[in-house]
Amino acid sequence: MRFADIIGNRSVADAMASMADSGRVPHAMLLYENEGCGALALALAFVQYLNCSAPVGGDSCGECPSCRQMSRLIHPDVHFVFPVNKGPKTSDEKPTSESYIKYWRELAIADPYFVEADLQKAIGIESKNGLIAVAEARNIISKLSLTAVADGYKAVIFYLPEKMNQETANRLLKMVEEPPVNTIFLFITHAPEKVLQTIFSRCQSIRVLPLSREERERVEVQKPTADNEERDLFMDLFSDLMRAVTSRDLTSALECGDAMAALESREKQKAFCAFASECIRKIFMIQQKLPQLADVAPEEEEFYQEMASKCVKGFCTRSITNIEKVVAMIDRNVSSKILFCDLVNRMFVNI
Ligand SMILES: [Zn+2]
């Protein structure tokens, strides 16, 4: 991944390139983004640039041995940590990122803009929560203790540090605080407030900006097609729900609740919740007379306008809060049928 391949976030890419040029590379950085906005792509481009043996015009060359290893995510000095759990794709009783590295590479090479649900699916743990356990910290410490294979930087790209427990963080802390020479940690988070303070406070934070609609479309075009199918399914479900709620049809609304609960995994249910929140935000923005922030695609304009005119004041904010509660409860293993039935009821009452 070269900086030139990054979609959007030019200012962030430029800032990272000048850090590398000036030789003032922080040993721990925290990139925070709304998922899918390119933090991983930026981290990969940054490490590739740092280790490129023939950089040109503020970017990596893409052709030297280091760049070629980076493009296949097999650079011996670049390590990846991401949340995992036991699953059918590994026989390891206590799996770590290493157990799933093959699937991580396939996913990140095909689509560096993937979201957490894509990762869950790729490593076959859709129905479970991914975690970063202490074994992961031990692996990283031992890998970083070895001498670098090549001349450049050793790097750990750490996806979703918010999934790490206290014990893991404690183990890692010293290494993050005082890493071996030319070693950097790049944390990528979607929830900076959930990153343990001990880690957070040792990082230089960088905000990866949300993508514009045009940039988002460019990302979508590059994605494997299953994602587009999922978006269509979510949009159908969301519009059925909103039409049922706004036309006071409780039976149809509850059927939508059942369909949400029947989504095949908890991750998929959470992905739908994130999607629905985003759609409700668009309705809210239109109500606020800020259509430029709603950023609605032309073919969906009519639907959103209709919903904006039918949803009463307060409906959007209350619904988003209620959806957030559902997401928190999904993580706590509460029956999804009850959760979504309750959510639909609340939306029905609030409309
Ligand atoms: Zn190169």
What does this structure look like?
With 351 residues, the chain is of the alpha/beta class. The protein folds into two domains: 3-214, Rossmann fold (3-Layer(aba) Sandwich), CATH 3.40.50.300; 225-350, Zinc Finger, Delta Prime, domain 3, CATH 1.20.272. The protein is 54% helix and 7% strand. The protein contains 16 helices and five strands. It has helices at 10-22, 39-51, 65-71, 101-110, 116-122, 134-145, 166-177, 197-200, 213-222, 226-246, 250-261, 266-287, 291-294, 301-310, 315-331, 336-350; strands spanning 28-32, 78-81, 154-159, 183-189, 204-207. It is globular. The chain starts with 9 loop residues before the first helix and ends with a helix. The model has no long low-confidence stretch (mean pLDDT 93). It binds zinc ion. The site of zinc ion has 9 residues, from helix 3. Residues 52-54, 60-61, 63-64, 66-67 line the site of zinc ion.
